[in-house]
């Protein structure tokens, strides 16, 4: 197994461990309007992303499928990694709902893991799709027009 694949699997494991920590313990949460708005934004962005990039075209690991196609429409017109942004919105909803300082640290750790995962994935996408470099110059990674 290549170092690329090992790093990808480690990042996926870290991602799921951090998401698990964010939702643990499964106790009643204070679902404020802000938490619900973040959750709704997460679900909407996630569903929009799945509508434009169907399962089978992408991996949960940051290894692009050689048989995949580059998607640049829908949310990908504004974000290179809209599913990662949806995960971060969900995590932010959990932080607001639990009102726990440790959850904030967990959110930042998750953001760093997703950034590393995105950078690794984008390296593979640049190698697989000749037009990816130009696309990456036009479209931000996680936040439209910002980052």
- Measured between the Cα atoms of the first and last residue, the distance is 32 Å
Number-wise, the strands total 0
What share of residues are in beta strands? under 5%
Please identify the structural class as seen in this structure: mainly alpha
Main beta sheet strand tally, sense and closure:
none
How much helical structure, as a percent, in the residues?
Answer: 55-70%
Q: What is the CA-based Rg, rounded?
A: 16 Å
Mean pLDDT: 92
State the domain count: 1
SSE arrangement, N to C? HHHHH
Task: Write a concise keyword list for the protein shown above.
147 residues; mainly alpha; 5 helices
Structure description:
This protein has 147 residues and is mainly α. α1 packs antiparallel against α4 (101-128), α2 runs antiparallel to α3 and α3 runs antiparallel to α4 (101-128). It has one domain. The relative contact order is 0.18. 63% of the residues lie in helices and 0% in strands. It is globular and about 45 Å long.
SSE diagram, text form:
Layout: H1 3-23, H2 33-52, H3 82-98, H4 101-128, H5 132-138
Summed up:
It is built from 5 helices and no strands.
